[in-house]
Amino acid sequence: MSSTARVVITEIMNQVTNRNPNEPEFHQAVWEVLESLEPVIERYPKYVEAGILERIVEPERQIIFRVPWVDDHGRVQVNRGFRIQFNSAIGPYKGGLRFHPSVYAGIIKFLGFEQIFKNSLTGLPIGGGKGGSDFDPKGKSDGEVMRFCQSFMTELYRHIGADIDVPAGDIGVGGREIGYLYGQYKRITGLYEGVLTGKGLAYGGSLVRTEATGYGLVYFTEEMLSDNGESLVGKTVVISGSGNVAIYAAQKAQELGARVVALSDSNGYIYDPEGIKLDTVKRIKESERSRIKNYLKDHPHAQYVDDWQGIWTIKCDVALPCATQNELDEASAKALVTNGVIAVAEGANMPSTPEAVKVFLDNKVLFGPAKAANAGGVSTSALEMSQNSLRYAWTFQEVDAKLKNIMINIYRNASQTAKEFGFAGNLVVGANIAGFLKVAEAMLAQGVV
Ligand code: NDP
Ligand code: 2IT
């Protein structure tokens, strides 16, 4: 690779680390993209001359705010709220809200940065943004969650809008939270508009949005396998997490003929060699909001292991990390390879460490990076926005068919782009370049803004 391109990206990376100290997740996400862009910089010096790289790594706007609320014991609690509006070159800011105690600016920036390229890959007109709070919904009553969401929206409402910035769910934010957030937005502004996605079906939500990230992940995986003469039929699948993404990935994988044998949460994993019974998991996670180990109460033949990372030592053909960032490290990747894994596709955002990704690529494991593989959620969010603008609702079959088509196109675009730039089979490079090119062209056309 030319040393000039390397010098350019190294300089930009140094600026990013100096400007954003102590934000390792953000640095990791930026470096992965910049490294992939070396061949683009060589071929198109115009992007460097127009300062596209310096601009794309700097969020357009970062909002940090106080979120005070009163708990069930009458005590005042204070959390920190974030919304990072990263890039609006190709559409209004779009991306989820994460409520988890680990949230700080570096997490929201890494997620917002990834979202720019993911949203571009969907082919739909959405820019990149992300937000959230260090609020921990675990163990909170519905009343506490409602009061927190109302306080959060009482600040956020002034920064968002159906044509400005459209948040959605992520870790710790599902249908319940979106409902409370929407109610407060409507109450303050008086607007009945598509300002959030992932809404309930009774008030403007889209069919398939709940299932979309998991279904999309599996459509992507099936396309990746089929392009390599394989399919999910009869395959053993391990999925980490047991939240929204993991549950619906498991459901679609089972529908397509795979056997899903494990799921996890942040404490440990369950292994059911007969195949996970999803009705039980849905009851535990969606209704009871309790722990995955309770699966054994209904299915005593299954095993529970109190070590969430141990899930990657289970022998499988396909691994779908669907919990959180950096959950799959080099040792786990090596264990998967030793056990004969043929495909890994990321449902979570940045779940594989850079060392793990290298192990997969070096060993010719089919590897679907998050930006491409988990884009089904935000794609269906964009379809929800379309339906809200039309004041119309498509059927389940219509939305599902569009989602499947989008995922197949993302796979083909990433795969084709990787080939074009001399990295055939490397979907990390392919997805980063394909996502970047559309945003870069839009930024170039719109001048220095
Ligand atoms: P949920 O809150 O529904 O579920 C999160 C799951 O991951 C839970 O099982 C949780 O376990 C586990 N988890 C969370 N943090 C950790 C941790 N630090 N260590 C181990 N396990 C952890 O979130 P989603 O399913 O929506 O999100 C999962 C991933 O998918 C995230 O990376 C998210 O960014 C990504 N994603 C989500 C999309 C969506 O539409 N929802 C779209 C695209 C990507 P526990 O209950 O113990 O915390
Ligand atoms: O990471 C993601 O793409 C999401 N959490 C979904 C974002 C969205 O706007 O639907």
Describe the SSE topology:
Blueprint: H1 3-19, H2 24-36, H3 38-43, H4 45-49, H5 52-56, E1 61-70, E2 76-87, E3 93-99, H6 105-121, E4 127-133, H7 142-156, E5 165-168, H8 175-189, H9 209-226, E6 236-239, H10 244-255, E7 259-264, E8 269-271, H11 278-287, H12 295-298, E9 303-305, E10 318-320, H13 330-338, E11 343-345, H14 354-362, E12 366-368, H15 370-373, H16 376-390, H17 396-420, H18 427-445
Parallel strand pairs: 3-4, 3-5, 6-7, 6-10, 10-11, 11-12
Antiparallel strand pairs: 1-2, 2-4, 7-8, 8-9
Bound molecules: NADPH dihydro-nicotinamide-adenine-dinucleotide phosphate and (2Z)-2-iminopentanedioic acid.
Residues 169-172, 174, 213, 241-246, 265-267, 308, 322-324, 327, 347-349, 374, 377 line the site of NADPH dihydro-nicotinamide-adenine-dinucleotide phosphate.
